[in-house]
Structures are given as C-alpha cells and as structure tokens.
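Subject: Interface between my chains keeps coming out wrong

I've been trying for a while to get a sensible model of this assembly. When I model each chain on its own everything looks fine, but I need the whole thing in one frame so I can look at the contacts. Pasting all components below, labels as-is. Any help appreciated, I'm running out of ideas.
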Amino acid sequence: MNVNFEAYVTAALFDSSTRAIFALGDGTVRFEDGTTIDAHPNGSVQCACAHPSGEGIVTGGDDGRVMWSRPSGPELIGEIKGRWIDSVASSAASGLIAFAAGKELRVRDVADPAFERVFKHDASVSDIAFEPKSGKRLATATYGGVALWYARVAEQKPQMLKWAGSHVGLAWAPDGRYIVSSMQEGQLHGWRLSDVKNMQMGGYPAKVKSMTFLFNGMIMATSGSNGAVVWPFGGGNGPMGKQASEVAYDEAGFTSRVAALPTRTLLAVGRDDGRIGVMNLQENRMEKVREERGAPISALALSADGGRVAWGDEDGNAGVAGLPLM
Amino acid sequence: MSDTASLIPVTVLTGYLGAGKTTLLNRILTEDHGKKYAVIVNEFGEIGIDNELIIGADEEVFEMNNGCVCCTVRGDLIRVVAGLMKRKGKFDAIIIETTGLADPGPVAQTFFVDDELKAKARLDSVTTVVDAKHILLRLSDSKEAREQIAFADQIVLNKADLVSPEDMRMIEARIRRMNPLAPIHRATRSNVPLSAILGRGGFDLERIVELEPDFLNPAHGEAGHVHDEHCGHDHHGHDHHGDDHGHDHHGHDHGHDHDHGHDHSGNVAATYDDDIKGVSLRLDRPVDAQAVTKWLNDLLAEQGPDILRAKGILDVKGEDKRLVFQAVHMILEGDLQREWRTGEERYSRMVFIGRNLDEAKLRAGFEATAAA
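Reply #2:
Try treating it as a single job with all components included. I did that and got this:
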C-alpha cells in the first residue's frame, strides 16, 4: 500500500488484528483497508498509542479529546477542555490510559469508566511512559526531570528523578530497571531505578525524537544522528562504561524515527529525507523499504511478526510494505 | 534543508497589559488580507473570537544546558509550534501574543536555538504595543516594559489621541533613545496598517539594508516622525531631542525650547536615565574580518545577557560583499550579503541595544578592528 493522505502522519501502528492504522494531522484515523474515522473533527491528532485491548488506536487531539478509534467508529476516552492533548500512553498489563495537557496528567481505566486520576506537575508534561511489566507506575517527562507516579493512587507526591533541563521524550526498559529521557539539547539522560544512578548519554547532533528498546531489553535504539544509535543495556550496569554504536549510517541527513520489536533484533530506520530501511542487527543487513526522497519520516512501525512495516511522512505520504524473512 | 520561503513566518506581539495588543490581534484575525493566522495567546479568552487556530499556551521559560547563561527558551512555544506543524497547510503564518510581563528574549531565542522549529519556522519580527498615556510611568517602574521597547522591530504607540503633541514628541524621543532602529507608528485603537507589522523580516540578514539610527524614522511630515540631527531642516522652535539637553550640537543652534520640553516632562526628566539605550557605531576604514569577528564573539560572550539586539553592516577589507550580522543576546548570525554598489558609500556601522552599554569602550573596541 502507498497513499498520500494529504495530512501530516502523526503516528502509525499495527494493532492486534495486524491491521496497519494511521493517525493524521487532519484529525482522522485511517485503517489500511481504507476505512476512515473522523476522530477529531476540525482538529488534529497530536499523539497516539495502542489501546490496552490491542484493538484499534488511541489518539490525543488539539481539540482536547482522547479518542479510541476502531473500524466500527470513535469513542471518547477523556477530555481536557480547551487544551491540546500533548501526549498519550497506555498499558496492556494494567488496562490504563494516561494522557497529558500542559501540566496536567490524567489516568483512565478502560475497565472502569468512573475511574480517573489527575496528577499536577510544576511544568508541562512532554511524554508519558508506563512501567512495562505491570503498568502500575508511570513516568512523565517534564522540565527539570522525570516524575514517577503510582498510576492508581489518588493522593501522592511523585518521586522526582531530577536532572536540569527540559526532558521531552521517554523510554522505560522492558525489565523496568532503567528509564531514559531525551532532552532538548540533543542528549539522553538515563536513570538506573534501583539506586537512582544517573547515566549521561550524549553526543547527538540533533534532538532525539524516537527511542525504542529491542532484543529483550538488551539494546536501545534511537534516532537523532546520521544513523540509528544503538546502546547496549545488557548486564547489570546498562550502558554505563560502554560505547554506543551507530548503524544504518548515512551522512546525508539524520534519522527521524526508529521502530523495533520487543524480542527481536529487527530495527526499522526512517530518515529526515524520507528514506526508510529495515535491518537485522545480528546480520547487519539492510533491506531498503523506501528509496524515494521526500519529507521527513514522522511515523514508523513494525508488525508483531516482523513481516511488514508501516510508515508515514510529514507531507502525508504513507505506506505499508512487506519485508522478506530477516 | 528548507529554504527561507517555505518557512512559516512568526510574528511576536508584545506590550504591557492594556496597551492594545488584543485590539491589534482582533484586527489581524478579522481583516480581509487573504491570509490565515494561527495565534498563540497567553491570556486566553480575551480575544472573543472562536477559531480553532487560536491556541492558549502557558509561558514556560527553560534554561538550556549548553553553557550559555542567557540562553533561555520558551518550552511551551517549542511544543505548540511543533504541534501546529501537524496542521500544515491550514495556516500561512503564526502570531505569538506574549503576556504583558513577558521578556521577549526567550521567545525570540526559541526560534534560533531549537533545530526542529528552525527547520519549519522563521522569526519575522517583534512588535511592541505601547500605551502612550501610561508609558512614562511604565518605563520608570517596569524592567519588562523597557525590554519590550528595546527588543522591538517596530513600535505601535497607541492611544496617541490621549496625549498632547508635545508629550508625544518627548515620549518618542525617549523610546528612540532606547531603540533607535524600530520605527514608531502613532496609533489610536491600534489602527496601524497591518503591513507595518506583518512580513517585516526583522531578523532577516538579507533585509538589513541601511543602518542609521534614524533610518526607519517615518518621513518628515508624517505622523510619528521624530526630528533629529539628520533632518536637516528647521525645528520649528518647539521641538527637542529629549536627550542631550543643553549640549551644543556641533556648534549649531537647533532652536530648542528646553523650557517647553521640561514643562511637559516635569518630574519625568528626573527618571530619564534609562538603563537601556541604543548605541550606534561607525567606522570609515575597512575592518579586518578576523578581528571584527573575534571582537563581536568576545563582546557577546561577555555582555550577551545585557545586549538585547544588535545589527550591523561591515565593510571588510578585501571583500566585495557587505558582511551583515544580527544578534539576539549571545546568538549571533552573520553572512555575506550583496556586493557593495558602485558609488555607494562604503563604511561599517552597527547598532547595539542593551543595558549598561559603555559607548566609549564599544567604540574603541570596534575601531581597533580596522584593518591595517
């Protein structure tokens, strides 16, 4: 499949039915079979994630709404009136969905429509990540550090992981032991949660907009350089004292998106010139998915079986491509 | 990378509470100019126009971890502008309205520091709306009001109908002393032509054409014109410069009526030593490229927090093109512009607007960059 949606592609993902789903800057959600859901009429999708059930997609809009879209239609999950939903995350393990507008974070439970938690921050929340194993805790990226919350507890003071500067993106290692944030200055900052040990992971020429753990949490891959930057997270010390390496290096521009699968060594790499490749880190072999140049890749996902890749760019070009056995 | 033409222009609207920003914004949103503006406001709900392209943002000033002490950015703007880009094609330009107490510095620096924004948007200019009736009081008691004037690419001097012509001239002279580059547009209920505010290219190196302290002064006879040394005409006996009272200007008499001016300024004259002022430098010998670059870099590194804006056109020895630069605090941008034209007077000039500027030291530093 290759289409032009004529709107910024905010997100792409495969749901549990192995359907590719795209969420767009014109407020719509597009399913690979052509089904269109107008999730945010007159609005735009600012952020998106999978639904805890695995079916469909959850989107946050500049209309202040969080919507769950399936081919049967949209459903309202939550709303912060008059604000933009800047980030949204979900946990299949706990069935929770968290979303943020400005300094406010809200948590909803898909099994209990009456459940809602509101967590206030001193500065705006830029990203949200659930603890991957249980989904009972969540982390928010904000100015001055990362806040850790118990997702279901109504009254609490968050644990602050402090580090000066503006934190804009988050990744939580699958074993729950490390949190990595992406910073405004083109560097990462990580914490080992057991002893809150700081890890500075720098050297990026651009802001890191995309981070993903793969290979059972042994590796974290990121965008923000000429290639995909690969950090070793095996052993007891994570990346501390080890060197990052760079794969899929190309001096023409930077990588803008990476995508991977939790247990495998497949890594999809999207670039700011529109090109896309998928490689198996164990074989160091690159499969070219898109060689045509265009707008920066803004959305990228691999299907659970590693057989397909879905992508979208800032100009609305999008596609789903089959991959050979890698 | 993106060429300038494809970048979304961003206009910053600043000014003290009640100066008339909202009136101006309403005009921009409702007048028939064929363009669609996305508007980022800090005082939400005042506009009274329902439009999905009006976005509320809470001012959040972030320090950068890059060793640049004055390098603060507006985190809210980074997020909102990046979010707006997802609606690409739905609007032609962005207007940012700041709160009355906002420092325009971080707003401007955001568009030079964040790579993502730089790739999509360009800062067009900063307009400061001033309430002529209350400005003298504001200048005395508010650091923000002074900085907003100093930072401006153009100034809308509102409520002109509420102030006597004599006071108006004194106000303009004082504004001009702080910011000699920004044209002053007298207005009533923000009735300035929108072309005086939008699409100005205030940070565009290509558009640094002339740099005379009075260069953007409206033509003599037009509203808002401020008489000064460069007018070369009779001062009607009632005009005054507002500064340098009682000095002998190069030995010729301007026919100032100082008493007249002081009658109107009254107690204001006592608070006339604004911490912010504009300093204009000129050098008729070509400068040495390396020396002048080093001097500028050192100066901005040392005094960047105090230097709000700077612009210059340099005649570099051995170079046929004009070297132009502009700076916001420590962020310096320079480039070779067009060639010097035949018959054009070749000389270097620069203007600094900032706090605690030592004019003599700046002049000596600049003159020391003259090529051997």
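Reply #3:
Confirming on my end. Residues 90 and 97 of chain A are 4 Å apart (CA to CA).
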